[in-house]
């Protein structure tokens, strides 16, 4: 799959001396959804702002659709749509006029048929004549997406797109993102909702303190770094773990009825057989067993701790 964005050794140091990006190198594939994860101040918004032409890099290079973001900024920006974190809209304007104006800013000829398709896809067509001040916060975020799509970009940056919206609306917006991907739009997503990245992303990048720690296919990342937890439900409660079991790295619940065992599902030996044999040797009756795969949140926290 070809790369639509190529970043080489990109850095940014602000006048205050803050180093927001430190030598980021990354290729973003055409048509993929890439989720960028990181704590506040990690450099995610700075990275997006540089690629969108809002911030000038201190060093390095980046190309969007083959166009250098500084020397050929008009061509590069024409390929990009940006949905920012902040809701910055003219609240006394209508939805349709807002997206028409955004399209005009890119020098595009009027095309209400295209705008109708965009608004219908975002469930905004019935609100096309409504003033923005009349819309809910979630609807306003949809308008931001409509503005970003008004000129038909090939790349869409979503900077915390579902911050502050309820769970139902968040899932509706996920469906919108999936439809855009199906149409061939490349999507770069920053989010604090790790389940959002786990649900939608093809690849996951982790940024911390201005450095890109890794970029990996989501499935590979979960396979390589994911762990499973075996929960053992006991027939009768234990006051404490016998010495033979305590050495196996188990956790006993406060009620004494469940024991948790964390293991690497990719290891040659999980240790479960030895664990169950130890229970039998101690005469401890097991009522039930269940396993749970670690989430992307678990993987993220482990990676930031181990790789930072």
Question: What this model shows, in words?
Answer:
With about 300 residues, the protein is of the alpha/beta class. It has 2 domains: about 5-225, P-loop containing nucleotide triphosphate hydrolases (Rossmann fold), CATH 3.40.50; about 225-305, Alpha-Beta Plaits, CATH 3.30.70. It has 11 helices and 14 strands. It has helices at about 45-50, 75-80, 95-105, 110-120, 135-150, 165-180, 195-200, 220-225, 245, 270-280, 295-305; strands at about 5-15, 20-30, 35, 60-65, 65-70, 80-85, 155-160, 185-190, 205-210, 210-215, 230-235, 250, 260-265, 285-295. A hairpin with a 2-residue loop joins strand 4 (about 60-65) and strand 5. Helix 3 (about 95-105) packs parallel to helix 5 (about 135-150). It is elongated, with a radius of gyration of 24 Å. About 30% of the residues are buried. The model has no long low-confidence stretch (mean pLDDT about 85). GO terms for molecular function: ATP binding. InterPro entries: AAA+_ATPase, ABC_transporter-like_ATP-bd, ABC_transporter-like_CS, ABC_transporter_ATP-binding, P-loop_NTPase. It comes from Albidovulum sediminis.
């Amino acid at each position: 799959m070809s790369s639509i964005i190529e970043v080489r050794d990109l850095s940014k140091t602000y006048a205050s001396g803050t180093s927001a990006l430190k030598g980021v190198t990354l290729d973003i594939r055409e048509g993929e959804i890439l989720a960028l994860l990181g704590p506040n101040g990690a450099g995610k918004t700075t990275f997006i702002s540089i690629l969108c032409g809002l911030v000038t890099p201190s060093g390095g290079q980046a190309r969007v659709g083959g166009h250098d973001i500084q020397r050929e900024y008009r061509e590069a920006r024409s390929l990009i749509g940006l949905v920012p974190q902040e809701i910055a809209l003219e609240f006394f304007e209508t939805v349709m006029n807002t997206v028409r104006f955004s399209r005009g800013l890119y020098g595009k000829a009027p095309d209400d048929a295209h705008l109708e398709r965009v608004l219908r896809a975002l469930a905004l067509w019935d609100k096309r004549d409504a003033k923005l001040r009349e819309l809910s916060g979630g609807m306003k975020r949809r308008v931001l997406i409509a503005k970003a799509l008004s000129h038909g970009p090939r790349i869409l940056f979503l900077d915390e797109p579902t911050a502050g919206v309820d769970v139902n609306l968040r899932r509706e917006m996920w469906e919108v993102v999936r439809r855009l991907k199906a149409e061939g739009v490349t999507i770069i997503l920053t989010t604090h909702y790790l389940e959002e990245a786990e649900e939608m992303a093809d690849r996951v990048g982790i940024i911390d303190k201005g450095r890109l720690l890794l970029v990996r296919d989501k499935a590979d990342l979960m396979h390589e770094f994911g762990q499973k937890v075996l929960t053992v439900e006991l027939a009768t409660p234990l006051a404490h773990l016998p010495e033979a079991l305590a050495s196996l790295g188990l956790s006993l619940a406060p009620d004494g009825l469940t024991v948790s065992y964390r293991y690497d599902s990719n290891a040659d030996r999980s240790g479960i057989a030895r664990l169950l044999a130890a229970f039998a040797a101690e005469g401890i009756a097991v009522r039930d067993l269940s396993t749970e795969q670690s989430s992307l949140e678990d993987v993220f926290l482990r990676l930031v701790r181990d790789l930072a």
